[in-house]
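TA notes, week 10

Several of you asked for a full example with nothing omitted. So below is the full record: structure tokens for the whole chain, then the designed sequence directly under it. When grading your own attempts, check the secondary structure regions first.
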């Protein structure tokens, strides 16, 4: 067992692992939308179903699309750790994770021309809140907030 999970119960560790797996799936699909730079019906439906705050997620994609921006290339997860795991709360379960991402493989283009992104040079820690609401069996993903380098 990784040391960062040692203080959690078996149920909490299982919730964390499931939330991370579903977050990975969310980010892969989200990256597809950013790569095309288009707001589509399927993107809207995706965010409505899988985002904690779908209108913010949709708005972020719309801002990219409206500015003729695409984001392609890869990110590499250096590590993922729990910040907190709370099960059985009034609105459901919440996992807050911290993830160190190497985004040096990302390419941002506007109007077809590459835009320099110096913040992608060094890996950064992102914090994201994931929620499994009462009556749902899926984890919804919040907006990742960039923090310090890792």
């Amino acid at each position: 067992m990784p040391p960062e999970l040692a203080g959690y119960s078996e149920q909490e560790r299982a919730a964390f692992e499931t939330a991370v797996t579903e977050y990975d799936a969310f980010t892969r699909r989200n990256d597809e939308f950013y790569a095309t730079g288009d707001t589509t019906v399927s993107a809207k439906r995706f965010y409505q179903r899988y985002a904690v705050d779908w209108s913010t997620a949709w708005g972020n994609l719309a801002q990219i699309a409206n500015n003729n921006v695409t984001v392609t290339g890869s990110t590499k997860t250096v590590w993922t750790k729990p910040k907190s795991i709370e099960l059985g709360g009034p609105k459901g379960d919440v996992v807050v994770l911290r993830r160190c991402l190497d985004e040096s493989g990302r390419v941002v283009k506007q109007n077809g021309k590459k835009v320099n992104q110096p913040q992608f040079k060094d890996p950064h820690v992102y914090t994201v809140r994931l929620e499994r609401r009462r009556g749902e069996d899926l984890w919804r993903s919040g907006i990742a907030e960039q923090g310090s380098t890792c």
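The chain has one domain: 3-149. Use that as a sanity check on your answer.
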